[in-house]
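Both lines are quoted verbatim for reference:

——
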Amino acid sequence: MEYLIFSDNQKMIFNYDFFKDKYENGNLKNAEIFAEIFKLKKTVFIKNEMIKNEKNYISICKFLNIFSIDWNIFVNFLNNLIINDDYSILKLHEISNKFGGIPEIDKLQLKNEIKYYNPQNPKEDYKQLYNWTFDMSYKSKEYLKHTQISAGDNYTYYRVLK
C-alpha cells in the first residue's frame, strides 16, 4: 500500500487501481503527464520510480504544493464530475496545470467561463466566442436557433456559440 504526502503533511492512501481506471476509462483520459508521473501507463521511456520521501511516501503532491483538501476536491471530481462552487473549480484548474493539463478539467473551466461570460452585444464579446446577428423586424424565424440577448427600440441582438 502506498501513501501520498501533501503540503500540509497529511497522508492519504494512493489507490493505484482507481487512478489507472480513471486514466483508461474515465475523467483522466488523455491526461498524459499525470499518467506518466503516477506510472499509470506503459511507456517506451526508462521507467523511473515515483518521487518519494525518506519514509517512502509519494511526495509529488508536496513538491507541487498541493494540499490534501485540494486533492479531495480532485478525487471528488473524478468520482462525480460535479463541482458547483468557484473555489473548487479554481483548485481543480490549479491541479490540472500542475499535472500538465487534464482535459476534463479544462472543459469544466471553459464551461465555467462561458457561464460567467455573458456579453450582451458584439462589442462586449471581447473573447469572440459568439456569432452575432440582429433583427430589426422582431418577426424573423431565421434566428430561432440563436439566443435573444438584448433589444433596443428598433432591433434585437441574437447570438450563438461559434
Q: What stands out?
A: Residues 53 and 59 are 6 Å apart (CA to CA). Residues 2-116 form one domain. The beta strands are 2-5, 11-14, 130-135, 147-151, 156-161. The helical segments are 16-25, 32-37, 60-63, 68-80, 86-98, 103-116.
